[in-house]
Give the backbone structure.
Amino acid sequence: MKVKSSYIPYFLILPAFAYLLFFVGYPLVQALYTAFTQNGQFSLATVRKTFADPYFWDALKYTIALAGVIVPTQVGLALILALAVNRAFKGKDFTIYALTIPLTISDVAAGLIWYSMLSPSGFLNKLLLNIGLIHQPIYFFGYQYRHMEFLAIVLAELWRATSIVFVIILAGLQMISHEYLEAAEVFGADYWTRLRKIVIPLLKPSIQSALIIRTLFAMQIFGIVWILAGRDIPILAGEGFYRLTELKEYDVASIYALVIAGLSILLGALYIKFMKAEYLEVRR
Amino acid sequence: MNDETKFMLKRLAFYTFIFTVVAWIIIPIIISTLYGFALPRDYYDPKKIFPTSFTVKYVKTLLFTLGALDGIKNSVIVALITIAISFALGIPAGYAVAKFIFPGKDTIKLSIVALRMFPIPVMAIPLVILYIKLNLIDTLLGVALAHTAMALPFVVLITSSIFAGVSTELEEAGMVFGLTRLGSFFRITLPLALPGLAAAAMFTFVMSWNEVFVASILTLSHRTLPAQILSIMAGASGGAAPDYYKFAAAFIMIIPAITFIFFARKYLVTMWGITLK
């Protein structure tokens, strides 16, 4: 019941809020402290050390490049799929089920699955060899094939994470009232006009929330890259992980964490500037 | 070309497209499952696209010798603790957001959403230092606490939309007939919200089950399944384990995911507003 009440709701929210604030606030303060002090004194030594490392700039470059290739492709693909599926046809249920399977597959598992597709003795190579399309296996893995590794990561990530975009956009599509579309049809608008003038504008909130979710997650891409390419393709989260677990450099790892945070805050701010906050919510 | 041929061609193109997409999703899963049980000689034979002889040897080795079974156990424990804590904290908050009007509500909702966007590596890396101080490093509770931070905003938003869906009149009726607010919550709202809450719990489970970064950083000897698999399968230079162990690992990891989505698909999609018709 909607009741005006002075303290009860705050009292109910407080524990969750305090918990979240602690797990976001404490790490942030700790990371800033670790990154910018040495022996208790303010120091930029760690920052200089990190920026002098070519891996840092490669990681920044590759993280942005991967996001730049993957996210727009995913959104475009998911839009086409959602539009295709949002009508009655034979096998619709199964198609939607199949398209949502990757929702629950982890990035590590997706990396391993795509390794079995693309490795030198993997499915794709054997298939193409036997059809006679190629005479030598295509090599996707190994430092000297870094461009192919990049492609493999893109393929695997498209396979794994397009479904979440698909689900968000399909949910948005189903909320569009049929009356608008029927009215447009009565007035003689063809499919493309309806799509451009009605469906896409009404779908904007869904597309935007899919964009923000995917871009922010792309900044922390890790498991799939680590499985398929290791450090051949350096990425921010992977370098932070490597610095922390292999070299025990807490300070450098903290800088990586802060860079990811900075990028995410920047992107989040940009998105929020261009969209209304309520679109972020998970809707029923 | 008359209209009927045009129509048929369009239909054909549509079904070809759908078929291609479904094949694109499903074939990799089938192939990695087949390879997970293939004999290495079949796998390395360039003439054999599909393996014909099978063995459970590599899946078994992975489970019992390389510690995947312990990983599964740890993953389940972490996920259950995560569900317990994030629901204990998240349900009251979700209820408050759904059923009360109060100043600052929108700000609070927005901050919860913003906290959900907080990147995992940023949380995990500095937590190591705190966990060493608190003796939480390399414990399942430690991982679960971090996973809770990841899952909690989601639980608040989902539960609030579930509670908002439970009719207010029913609650009011309960209170008219003498139940307290708390009583009417436990006797009326909670039972009605239960299916939705179960779905949210399943989704939380999957989130925790799939998470690898936090788990890899915060544990060494008590690893969850993805962290365990990651450390066996990939070193810093990539590609540490032999191919057939990778396939076996993929198989072990996707079985729960596929089973889960098969049982939960109804809820999974309704949570995002889709009704399968």
Remarks:
- Confidence is low (pLDDT under 50) at residues 273-277 of chain B.
- The beta strands of chain B are 100-101.
- Chain B touches chain A through 109 residues (CB under 8 Å).
